[in-house]
Amino acid sequence: MSQERYRIVEHDGGWAYSALGVYSETYPTHDAALAAARRVAAEQSVPDRPRMIEYQDETGAWRVEAAAAGDDRPVVEVED
Fold first, then answer.
1. Could you report the per-residue pLDDT of 14-46, keeping only the tens digit for each?
2. Domain carrying residue 32
3. Which one of 29, 41, 45, 56 has the largest count of C-beta atoms within 10 Å of its C-beta?
4. Sign of the CA dihedral 72, 3, 52, 23?
């Protein structure tokens, strides 16, 4: 099972949550960013049904890969 960690950081004149160098939208307060990170973390832990992975590559062609198990959800921590 994978693990993710969201950190609350100052960003773009406000606050955001960040993971792996990617930032969320900017929130006006630390508390608002923290609440959003907690909400997203909770949503990520909800299991789903298996699905095929489909994406469009850089040439515009659609690719289909093996199915993703819907019950393999990450463990997400939120650092205040």
1. 999 999 889 999 999 999 999 999 999 998 888
2. 3-79
3. 41
4. positive
pLDDT at site 1:
62
CB 36 within 8 Å of CB 24 = yes
Residues 64-73, mean pLDDT to the nearest whole number? 76
Is residue 17 within 8 A of residue 6, CB to CB? The reply is yes
* φ/ψ of residue 42, rounded to 5: -65, -40
pTM of the predicted structure, to 2 decimals: 0.69
For the chain, the distance separating the N- and C-terminal CA atoms, rounded to the nearest angstrom, is 23
How many CA atoms, within 13 angstroms, populate the side-chain half-sphere of residue 17? 20
Residue 28 per-residue DSSP state: S
Q: How many domains, in total, are found in the chain?
A: 1
Cα 72 from Cα 30, distance rounded (Å)? 30
Task: State the DSSP code for 69.
Answer: P
